[in-house]
């Protein structure tokens, strides 16, 4: 029996939460191990990783079929915030690749990638508290961590309501779970590159 078939949560968002718990703690530890709050220069490497991740998902955030499900989807994308943050921090844009941007995804997969990006806004509230010590804020250098319009909790609730309501067949369900894990792996890859 695969790990995922043992999961019992009725809600998809809860199942994705559960299977990404471990990758999330590993990523959290990895972020901390790079000491991103030691200086604005170190924090800029973290922002560069966020930029690459948002860039990966930029086309999904602007996908007409997904916007039908989540009307404010384009406004949720933070690629522009990270571009401005990197300019504030005087760090050039890292070069990305097209591997994820150009991937054709089914609905389950697409929503799972967005789940990870949208979920990262919850942790951002904690990261934002560290910014004053660096002279940064949601209007300078750490815009991408700022409170989304309408509030973090509300935005997350609205997104997961959609995620939980779409119908997926067993294969798409499986692909969604794999995509959530892949999204954490991708962020890890960006982080390692940007801090190298
Ligand atoms: C690329 C994806 C993600 C990154 C880089 C990320 C990063 C982080 C980091 C570094 C923290 C620690 C903040 C601190 O304690 O100082 C954190 C906390 C948190 N993250 Fe994430 N996260 C990601 C995805 C997610 C997802 C998908 C969810 C929800 C489904 C989520 C929910 C949370 C919550 C609720 C916290 C608050 C503390 C906790 O309960 O552990 N994050 N995140």
Largest sheet report: none
CATH second-level architecture = Up-down Bundle
Tally of helical segments: 9
**What amount of the residues lies in strands?**
under 5%
Number of strands: 0
The CATH superfamily label reads Heme oxygenase-like
CATH topology: Heme Oxygenase, Chain A
Shape: globular
Total number of distinct structural domains: 1
What is the element string, with H for helices and E for strands?
HHHHHHHHH
Q: Which percent bin holds the helix content?
A: 55-70%
Radius of gyration: 16 Å
So what's the CATH class? Mainly Alpha
Helix/strand-derived category reads mainly alpha
Average pLDDT score = 95
Termini separation: 39 Å
> Unreliable segments (pLDDT under 50, ≥5 consecutive)?
none
Which ligands accompany this protein?
protoporphyrin IX containing FE
Protein name: Biliverdin-producing heme oxygenase
Region (Disordered): 1-23
């Amino acid at each position: 029996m695969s790990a995922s078939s043992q999961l019992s949560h009725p809600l998809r968002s809860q199942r994705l939460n559960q299977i990404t718990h471990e990758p999330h703690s590993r990523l959290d530890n990895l972020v901390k191990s790079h000491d991103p709050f030691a200086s604005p220069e170190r924090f800029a490497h973290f922002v560069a990783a966020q930029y690459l991740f948002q860039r990966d998902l930029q086309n999904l955030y602007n996908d007409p079929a997904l916007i039908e499900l989540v009307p404010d989807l384009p406004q949720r994308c933070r690629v522009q915030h990270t571009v401005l943050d990197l300019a504030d921090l005087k760090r050039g844009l890292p070069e990305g690749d097209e591997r994820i941007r150009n991937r054709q995804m089914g609905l389950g997969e697409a929503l799972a990638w967005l789940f990870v990006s949208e979920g990262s806004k919850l942790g951002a509230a904690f990261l934002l508290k560290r910014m004053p010590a660096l002279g940064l804020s949601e209007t300078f250098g750490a815009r991408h961590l700022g409170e989304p319009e309408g509030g973090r909790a509300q935005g997350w609730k609205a997104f997961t309501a959609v995620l939980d309501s779409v119908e997926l067949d067993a294969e798409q369900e499986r692909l969604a779970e794999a995509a959530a894990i892949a999204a954490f792996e991708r962020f890890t890859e960006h982080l390692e590159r940007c801090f190298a």
